[in-house]
Amino acid sequence: MKTPLYTALVNHAEGHHYSFHVPGHHNGDVFFDEAKTFFETILKVDLTELTGLDDLHEPSGVIKEAQDLVSQLYGAEESFFLVNGSTVGNLAMILAVCQPGDTILVQRNCHKSVFHAIELSGAHPVFLTPAIDETMAVPTHILYETVEDAISQYPHAKGIVLTYPNYYGHAVDLKPIIEEAHQHDIPVLVDEAHGAHFVLGHPFPQLSLKAGADVVVQSAHKTLPAMTMGSYLHLNSSRINRDRLAYYLSVLQSSSPSYPIMASLDIARAYAEDLLKTNRTADIEKELINLREVFSQINGAEIVEPADDRIQQDPLKLCIRSAYGHSGFELKSIFEANGIHPELADERQVLLILPLEGKNKPAPELISTIGKRIKDTVVQHDHPAGIGIPSEKVTALPYRKNKLSAFKKESVPFAEAAGRISAEPVIPYPPGIPLIMAGERITKETISRLTRLIDLNVHIQGSNQLKQKQLTVYIEEEKS
Question: Which among 208, 270, 367, 414 could disulfide-bond with 213, CB atoms 3.0 to 4.6 Å apart, if both were Cys?
């Protein structure tokens, strides 16, 4: 299996060259002794744009060859390595299609990086409210009717941004939505951060590229064996200005990209390609079923899946809920106390991301211990009635950014915040989906949920005053 970039790095490392270039560890020659044991191997390939190692921002050698192999595997017109995570891909693809004042349609449960991109572009977002799965009690996908309605109201939108799958691995057929958007010459931009492994085909959902998406961003590091921050961006359409997209990638990504991260992207592609060529996906499916069975043996816990039959559940994602009514956060603490670290928790369940070919499985004794801990742990909180998202399917911010800039701000207690315009984003993390966006009108339901999350000691990205149950809001009067 070809790994052009990784192979070039290994060949250089084995050539016993003298380093008189950056980085400052000089192939591991200069390093803190106490840490060298863990780092020394990777330091040998932590290189820079040396002769024969190409340049990410103007690739013509081994990096270009590695990227071309990615595009061939995924069926894209062109693929790009991202060393700043899917965040930089989301920023670049939105900046590539939006100018200040443009309208862009965006799924409301997108990652915060999507909203940051819209803010940087100066575009005006129109939010598409996702469906809520009754069993999971989480936002899932956008209905076709919602997109149809949004396009009828905003036919000149410059793009539509979708999240596929959602964080919980819920995927639906995107083809009808993409075809509807394309009939109006609206490009579809997909944050497929959790779907890089969909290239393997059954039993996994379909790639959004195959459904016709114009630009797709994937976090290879989330589900393939790539290093953290290693991601792909796939360009698949002439509706997107390729040079503008490449320009923003060069502006937003580091001018000193990590070669170990890029090499891991090369390796992750080779790994996925090898799985396909050796027909190991059927074995992976069996192993995932077996691993689910292991967790299903926990007394006092149950595996939960979406109720909506339109949703295909990614088998790498496993949600577990307490049968006794514990919150997901309480359940997460029990798992962590026994050496199992879930990806995230919400108010009802924990989410595990299963490995494609992982060898480590919890022992029966550990599964039994976790079951006993669940039974013996007192339930602290009841489940909430709702999750605090708007009932309207197509919504816009009440003011444009230039109007908001004329408003003063003040801090108010949560009890006085409902009905006001938030001057700050409030983002539970993970998953990094804003509960409240700056410029959004705050609802009673949102305040109720935010209060619960704070009482549950959930990690929330926002101002320090949130812990005092205060929010910064706009005073809706123009400055004199």
Answer: 208
